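Q: A reviewer asked whether we had any structural model of the full assembly, not just the individual parts. We don't, so I'm hoping you can provide one. Inputs are below.
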Amino acid sequence: MTRRVTVGPFNRVEGDLEVRLDIDDGVVSSAEVTAPLYRGFEQILRGRPAMDALTLAPRICGICSVSQSLAAVAALRAVDGLRAADNGVLAANLAHAAENVADHLTHFYLFFMPDFARDVYSGRPWHGDVAARFKAVQGSAAQAMLPARARLLQIMGLLAGKWPHSLAFQPGGTTRAIDLGERVQLLSIIGDVRDFLERSVFADSLDNVLALDSAAALATWRDGRGGDFARFLGVADDLALDRLGRIALPLMSYGAYHGLDAPLFARGVYDPVTAGVAALDPDDISEDVAHAWMRDTALRPAEADTDPDADKPAGYSWCKAPRLAGRPVEVGALARQAVDGNPLVRDLVARSGPNVANRVIARLLETAKVVVAMHDWARRLDLRAPFLDRAARRGAGAGIGLIEAARGSLGHWIELGDDRIRRYQIIAPTTWNFSPRDRDGVAGPLEQALAGTEVGDEGARSVAVQHVVRSFDPCMVCTAH
Amino acid sequence: MERFNVLWLQAASCGGCTMAALDNGHAGWFAELARFGIDLIWHPSLSEATADEAVAIFERIAHGTQRLDALVLEGSVLRGPNGTGRFNMLGGTQRSMLHWVRTLAPCANYVVAAGSCAAFGGVPMAGSNPTDASGLQFAGSEAGGALGAAFRSRAGLPVINIAGCAPHPGWISETLAALALGGVEADALDSFGRPRFYADHLAHHGCARNEYYEFKASAEEMSQQGCMMEHLGCKATQAVGDCNQRGWNGNGSCTSGGYACIACTSPGFETSQNFLETAKLGGIPVGLPLDMPKAWFVALAALSKSATPKRVRANATSDHVIVPPRTDSGRRK
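A: Here is a predicted structure for the entire assembly that you could use as a starting point for your response.
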């Protein structure tokens, strides 16, 4: 017999979320995911001066505000065919990396791990240790992580004035030129963050972590190791988290940290079934509103509007359903690292596919890689050269800004006329991952990942459901925006 | 120490005020709360309790079986469509945040708006205000909002508005700690309900560009060091906040970051357009420093422009110091 349960408010995610589950014999047979908040940024932006996007767009999201800024900047840049000053590119990468690393650590320490401190696991051999370390608000890990996070975000004070919500990110680069002493301060902060990762997260040098190139190497490395990453791997093994939240949808990345030449992480689409990489064509992106509380509109984001309809009978979310060549795709750190060819992530995906354990592993590995890149970017800043190029703007035409936020692929589609915004469409990472069904009835990635989850008699209280949802690190405020 | 408990809710927010709060203190925000005896009954981003466990807490408060010292709301209250609040439902409850806010606010000794959205409506109110957003007790600068102008929390205070987008982490934690310590009276708040400990200052106070301001040596483009009031939209002389007297993320601030103050502590800041350009009438900025007579400002500006040292003029339009202060060969008076 099918039992329908509703889970919400779904907390320790960014924003609010509701999930409805159909349960047959203790197993989720079908799921519906609802984004319960709509603020209307695309409506708010319409008709305003083009550059107002730089004030308003970051305020879509307090946890990935730099990402929203940089997507808006990239779209404005595309309209006018501008290039940023080299220093501006490096400084934007540094600020963006600081936000992304802060987000990965916030997810791991504050959002994801506290579920393993729950009483439901009190019979597991690791529970005492994990609860002391990760208990929500009280655990010892957060006491160490919060000061490390605050230190990391001092990069924003140096390069961008403040975080969240900075206006330092402009089409011509960034607004703050730093001096000799401030470069040293930057390197010092990056060094402190590296120390935290090596001491608390990995209990090993980042070089050793980044040398891990297969599931076998990871298994050998973690044997007997301390640190929070190994602690998680132990829990993941015991609970078989590699069998939880498993799907086989294409993994997509727009390419991350666009550098002076190639991006740090490549752009493309990785198929976890065939292990093949394909090029990404932005023209293949569409958004379907069949089950969103939205009036019908064009499928292509460059031609679409956002017009809410709270009474639409078929609607069950404020989130639209983005599709790549007609299919849902998964985005995030796992997708980014698989597309980029990280050997450990590719091996893990080959063995067990995208799942709860692999999403978390990819996020922490990426953190290590990014911190190493940050050091390099800070060294490469040319302190005699400008950070911001004067930009002669036309303010007419269309442009697309495609970047990678911490949680995955973020796109802004913009159309300007007389330097005013005629159309603004945003597809955020969690719009992809937590999409509702499309017109063909095809479920979104989380909806697919929840199907098959064993919840036993616990129903809505099942902690397995919590793990699956949080493994995507959803940002619900971005989702419907 | 007597415990002080806080229920934190997010309505139509970006979550940025929580992100800012987490940035507080050398020991971390949780340690800072503990130091002042503050317990988070529930916080959407941080607490273990989820779904019906969380709803049970709200119901205990509504039924009066759970004491509530402070309700903190982050984000605007959405009243649309058509007064239903359905643009923002609280997951799992079939009820809007509008409903929950109106139910829980009268149960709290203090009601605190974290950020300009909960205080005045903020960014969701911009443009056509498609969701009928408002703050708790103001819609822009108009008193009213979701709770009404007459609302007073159990302790007899109006909503305490920690305005800012996002507020400084210190503004949030110091307000909560001051409430926990007791003795916060109506005279601690300004006419918009903002704590005077930070709202009795202007963002301009302590700006590192003060010498440029004094001489009206203006930056012409972003990233230059000069004063940003004349051309680049800076409203720091009109906006409240001790922004340049305490560091943001270390030693940062908007003006030190190379861009204008957009007066994010002011009700209705989101209704401005062209944030990074100064609106002028006859070549004179429309927005002049608060409480300064216009004629005096124009006269003093002309005088100080004519007295600007070469060094200040040259550096104002550069992104780094190109003419250093002249040293006096080691002589001191």
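A: Points you may want to mention in the reply: Chain B touches chain A through 81 residues (CB under 8 Å). Chain B is about 25% helix and 10% strand.
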